């Protein structure tokens, strides 16, 4: 499915799937302001990179991969010294079994996924041997028939932070899908379709794809973190359901588009309906300021890959989401070029991580091409 076709079809639907285009108005932020924020953010990241090419710590391949990707998204070439050092650090963490992490990492699945995305984007040919082995490692992590997990099991198709068990969750499964697509897998790849089964079970939508009691208790079209352990950081509703929240709903939408779903699928319609009803760039809906920069990165990526131009909220107001997101990030940027979350949950008190997420979000704020 071409994403252009996805958008054309999406635009024909009526509210609450509210996507509107106003050709007479320019979309997106001021290009000069966008370029300046990116330049300042990239300059900050260069100051926090260690001599070995890493960010945050020598063992933090995940943050290093995100920061390296963020520098490239800000326009730095792969032979820029900071980018080259980051890529070398990531490639140097590749293990014989395919994982890209330090030997004792407990989050090697997540780290491998983000590493595959950045290496594939930097130089697919150069890093092809590493990416191919990493792809095999990631596929082996998936809960499926090879592990005795059948399609009716709620864990089916998901992945956890690392191999060897654990509880699969939507965040890691979304990273898996993006990594497989970056490595060249098509939307109909069996692993991606298995992952879609898991993603659908993270959606509060009673349907043939999810018949759990928790989904029917909420049934608002949003997404939560973990259907296996029945966990949502946003808590439970009085009816016993798992509350939907912002970052996971955008992760769910992004994953569905990567897996080939279009506007005719009720899961996509319900997700965009939830997003319209909960539209904001002030907070991570349902979570406040927790995971705020992760939310911004997913917000931008999901709406960009779905080619949504304007998003209409519950009041009927059509928003230029690119302009809104960029303006919010401009306001939050520190004088030294960084971003940081006062709420330190999920490591966003680390300015290298928050700045990487912010730069990746700004990359999706580029105005759409005009005909």
List keywords for this structure.
two-stranded antiparallel ribbon, mainly alpha, 371 residues, single chain, disordered N terminus, Glycosyltransferase
Total count of domains: 1
Mean pLDDT figure: 91
Strand content: under 5%
How would the global form be characterised?
globular
* Largest sheet properties: 2 strands, antiparallel
- Give Rg in angstroms: 19 Å
Question: What name is given to the CATH topology?
Answer: Glycosyltransferase
Succession of helices and strands? HHHHHHHHHHHHEEHH
| Number of DSSP-assigned strands | 2
Report the helical percentage.
40-55%
* Low-confidence residue ranges: 1-24
Q: What is the CATH top level name? A: Mainly Alpha
Q: What structural class should be given to the helix and strand makeup?
A: mainly alpha
Report the span from N to C terminus: 21 Å
Main-sheet strand order equals 1-2
Q: Supply the number of helical segments.
A: 14
Q: Would you mind describing this structure in some detail?
A:
This protein starts with a helix and ends in an 8-residue tail after the last helix. Strand 1 and strand 2 form a beta hairpin. The protein is 47% helix and 1% strand. It has a two-stranded antiparallel ribbon with strand order 1-2. Residues 1-24 have low confidence and may be disordered. The chain is built from 14 helices and 2 strands, in the order H-H-H-H-H-H-H-H-H-H-H-H-E-E-H-H. It is globular, with a radius of gyration of 19 Å. Helix 10 runs antiparallel to helix 11 (266-277) and helix 10 (246-258) packs parallel to helix 12. The protein is mainly alpha-helical and 371 residues long. It has a single domain (3-363), classed as Glycosyltransferase.
């Amino acid at each position: 499915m071409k994403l252009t076709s996805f958008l054309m079809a999406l635009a024909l639907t009526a509210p609450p799937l509210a996507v509107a285009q106003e050709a007479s108005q320019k979309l997106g932020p001021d290009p000069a302001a966008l370029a300046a924020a990116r330049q300042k953010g990239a300059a900050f990241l260069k100051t926090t990179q260690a001599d070995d090419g890493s960010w945050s710590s020598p063992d933090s391949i995940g943050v290093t991969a995100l920061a390296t990707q963020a520098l490239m998204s800000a326009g730095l070439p792969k032979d820029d010294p900071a980018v080259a050092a980051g890529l070398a650090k990531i490639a140097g963490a590749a293990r014989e079994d395919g994982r890209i992490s330090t030997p004792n990492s407990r989050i090697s699945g997540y780290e491998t996924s983000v590493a595959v995305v950045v290496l594939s984007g930097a130089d697919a040919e150069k890093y092809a041997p590493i990416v191919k082995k990493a792809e095999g490692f990631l596929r082996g992590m998936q809960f499926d028939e090879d592990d005795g997990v059948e399609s009716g099991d709620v864990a089916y198709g998901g992945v956890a932070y690392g191999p060897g068990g654990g509880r699969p969750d939507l965040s890691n499964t979304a990273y898996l899908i993006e990594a497989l697509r970056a490595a060249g897998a098509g939307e109909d790849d069996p692993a991606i379709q298995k992952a879609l089964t898991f993603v659908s079970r993270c959606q509060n939508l009673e349907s043939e794809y999810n018949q759990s009691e928790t989904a029917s208790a909420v049934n608002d079209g949003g997404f939560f973190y973990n259907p296996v352990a029945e966990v949502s950081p946003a808590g439970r509703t009085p009816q016993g359901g798992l509350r939907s929240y912002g970052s996971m709903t955008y992760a769910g939408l992004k994953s569905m588009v990567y897996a080939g779903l279009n506007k005719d699928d009720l899961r996509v319609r319900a997700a965009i309906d939830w997003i319209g009803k909960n539209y904001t760039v002030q907070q991570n809906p349902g979570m406040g300021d927790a995971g705020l920069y992760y939310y911004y990165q997913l917000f931008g990526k999901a709406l960009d890959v779905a080619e949504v131009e304007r998003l209409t909220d519950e009041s009927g107001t059509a928003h230029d989401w690119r302009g809104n997101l960029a303006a919010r990030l401009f306001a939050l940027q520190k004088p030294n070029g960084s971003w940081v979350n006062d709420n330190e949950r999920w490591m966003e008190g680390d300015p290298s991580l928050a700045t990487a997420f912010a730069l990746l979000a700004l990359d999706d704020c580029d105005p759409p091409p005009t005909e």
